[in-house]
Amino acid sequence: MEIIVKQDYDQMSRCAAEHIAELIRKKPNSVIGFATGRTPIGTYRELIRMHKEEGLDFSQVVTFNLDEYLGLGMDLSKPYALDQSYQRFMYEELFNHINIKKENIHIPDGLTKNPDEFCKAYEEAIKEAGGIDLQILGIGGDGHWAFNEPGSTLDSRTRVEKLNEQTIKDNYEAFYKEAGFTMDEMPHYAITMGLGTILEAKSLLMLANGAKKAKVVAKALYGPVTDQVTASAIQVYKGKATIILDKEAASMLDSKDYN
Ligand SMILES: N[C@@H]1[C@@H](O)[C@H](O)[C@@H](COP(=O)(O)O)O[C@@H]1O
């Protein structure tokens, strides 16, 4: 695993975008797993800039998103702030601004009538696409990947997961609060790729920034591999893992471990 530490959020974002762009240039029909959250927004802005100014071509790229709130789907009749679906996030923050084909985009359907069947089909679709070449990941406040909350096993697959209190609170603070929502309007369930699904990706790119993430990043990288910090699964990952952090998020790591 390679750990890269950058001075600040902007440099972290540029470095992450370059990592993704390099793969797309090498393999134009790459299958990329995208993540939501505050962390990757800067990376997506940089990818948009690369598309517009440098012609980075997404026309053959295939995508699979990590997760979606159960019960939410893109609702264009609402302004963006009032539509907190991850699907809307991806279109607003990235897909609307690059030349990706709509039919190549896969995001779990939070409005599905049959979540179990949907989850099975999502796993199948990833396999049919040839597997994920690069999975982008953030890390939740309790150390989760996607919505793999504490207790998720290393062999877990795409499924419905109940969100824990801290995750609901973190997501409220990060997105819902400023849009005027109350805590009782928060979704409590989500469809998430499993840890087993994520660990099958050919490479991983994990991002974290800010002092708030320092402790959980250290736990994930140095602590025991435990279902209480599901990002600790990175320690048993067999493919190529790259971790890009800003200085603050890396503040509890040993400086000999990173570039
Ligand atoms: N499901 C998402 C995760 O994929 C994301 O990594 C996490 C952290 O988000 P942020 O980047 O806003 O800290 O939030 C949610 O729980």
Compact summary:
The active site is at 67 (proton acceptor), 142 (for ring-opening step), 144 (proton acceptor), 149 (for ring-opening step). It contains seven helices and ten strands.
List the helices and strands and how they pair.
Blueprint lengths: L1 E5 L2 H18 L4 E4 L6 H14 L7 E4 L1 E3 L16 H8 L11 E2 L8 H14 L5 E4 L21 E4 L2 H12 L12 E4 L2 H5 L3 E6 L5 H9 L17 E7 L13
The structure holds 2-amino-2-deoxy-6-O-phosphono-alpha-D-glucopyranose.
Question: Could you explain the architecture of this structure?
Answer:
With 259 residues, this protein is α/β, with parallel strands linked by helices. It has a single domain (2-253), classed as Rossmann fold. The chain has helices at residues 9-26, 41-54, 86-93, 115-128, 165-176, 195-199, 214-222; strands spanning 2-6, 31-34, 62-65, 67-69, 105-106, 134-137, 159-162, 189-192, 203-208, 240-246. Helix 1 packs across helix 2 (41-54). The protein is globular, with a radius of gyration of 17 Å. The mean pLDDT is 97. The structure holds 2-amino-2-deoxy-6-O-phosphono-alpha-D-glucopyranose. Residues 35-39, 66-67, 138-140, 146-147, 167, 171, 174 line the site of 2-amino-2-deoxy-6-O-phosphono-alpha-D-glucopyranose (GLP). Residues 11-238 form the Glucosamine/galactosamine-6-phosphate isomerase domain. Its EC number is 3.5.99.6. One of its GO terms (biological process) is carbohydrate metabolic process.
- The beta-strand count equals 10
Radius of gyration: 17 Å
CATH class: Alpha Beta
- Proportion of helical residues: 25-40%
Q: What's the overall average pLDDT, rounded?
A: 97
Q: Roughly what fraction of the amino acids lie in strands?
A: 15-25%
How many separate domains? 1
Strand order of the largest sheet: 1-10-9-6-2-3-5
CATH architecture classification: 3-Layer(aba) Sandwich
The assigned structural class equals alpha/beta
Main beta sheet strand tally, sense and closure:
7 strands, parallel
The ligands found in this model are:
2-amino-2-deoxy-6-O-phosphono-alpha-D-glucopyranose
Question: Which fold name is given in CATH as the topology?
Answer: Rossmann fold
| N→C terminal distance | 12 Å
**Can you write the helix and strand succession as a string?**
EHEHEEHEHEEHEHEHE
Low-confidence stretches: none
Give the helix tally: 7
Shape: globular
